[in-house]
Amino acid sequence: MQGARRSVRPGAKVHRRGEPKLGSRGGAPRRRPQRKRRKASRLNRALARHPLFYKGIRLSLLSLIWGTILLGLTVIYFLARVPDPIVATLDDRPPNVTVLASDGTVLAEKGLRRGHVRLDALPPYLVQAVIAT
Predict the structure, then answer these.
(1) Structural domains in the chain (count)
(2) Three-state SS for 110?
(3) Same domain, 101 and 77
(4) pTM, two decimal places
(5) Which position has the higher pLDDT, 42 or 76?
(6) 108 in a domain, yes or no?
């Protein structure tokens, strides 16, 4: 039986695994510590099972973020274009209705710009006309 085992010469040292080689320093050979295999996280396992679902969620979140940014920029743009309310009320607009006397003096104005006229300054027929209406 020749191929089953090698015959060793008498007196020769045999190198076996786990034993130091000839001429090496004593002790077992150093082994690198094996890395502990991490268990895949729940999210990673779910991503592996349903890749299209999570890509859709990712795309939806991304579009939501960009949509919010664009909406905010639009609101800022339009707020910058709105005139100051104080300045808008001071606008010089002509009055809508002006009541004039026969001599051309202004008796009353109705509209945005109003000049107040006392009741005793109005002619009596104007007061009666307003009451009749």
Answers:
(1) 2
(2) strand
(3) no
(4) 0.36
(5) 76
(6) yes
Tokens at 77, concatenated:
């743009």
120 within some domain: yes
* Greatest extent of the chain over all pairs of C-alpha atoms, in Å: 148
How is residue 120 written in tokens?
């005793």
Looking at the predicted structure, is the pLDDT value of residue 48 above 90? no
In a domain, 67, yes or no: yes
Q: Residue 66 has what pLDDT?
A: 98
Three-state secondary structure of 59-108 = HHHHHHHHHHHHHHHHHHHHHHHCCCHHHHHCCCCCCCEEEECCCCCEEE
Q: Which residues constitute the domain of residue 104?
A: 97-132
Q: Is there a contact between 60 and 68 (Cβ–Cβ < 8 Å)?
A: no
Q: Distance (Å, rounded) from C-alpha 106 to C-alpha 122? A: 10
* Structural domain includes residue 18: no
pLDDT band at 70 (very low <50, low <70, confident <90, very high): very high
